[in-house]
Amino acid sequence: MAVFAVTWLYRWLTVDFANDRFVPLTRARQILVGEIPVRDFFDPGLPLHHYVSAAAMYASGQNLLGEALLTVTLVALGAALTCFL
Predict the structure, then answer these.
(1) Which one, of 67, 62, 60, lies nearest residue 30 by Cα?
(2) What is the DSSP secondary structure assignment for residue 63, as one 8-state letter?
(3) Between the CA of residue 49 and those of 2, 8, 9, what are the distances in Å?
(4) pLDDT for position 22
(5) Element (H, E) at 31
(6) Distance (Å, rounded) from C-alpha 53 to C-alpha 79?
(7) What pLDDT does residue 51 have?
(8) Which of 73, 75, 27, 68 is nearest to 51 (CA)?
(9) How large is the angle between the packed helices 2-13 and 64-84, nearest 10 degrees?
(10) 7-60 pLDDT, tens per residue?
(11) If we measure between CA atoms, which residue out of 85, 51, 52, 45 comes closest to residue 71?
């Protein structure tokens, strides 16, 4: 639990959106306006990623806060599970 907390806090204090983060965000925004991957726009095979990002954007009022919380939490969870294993 300590690894999760420390990693989450560190990642939250150093949160940064690189240019490659905005491709899934644009696809998530397309999902929010009613489009469907593959039918309405090109999807390279990451529909779960797009739908989870869309849910985070919807929950946070369609801003980057939801994506930041999602990313930080999943990275911290991965670090904690790696240490546990």
Answers:
(1) 62
(2) S
(3) 27, 20, 23
(4) 83
(5) helix 22-32
(6) 20
(7) 93
(8) 27
(9) 150
(10) 999 999 998 877 777 888 888 999 999 988 878 888 888 888 899 999 999 999
(11) 52
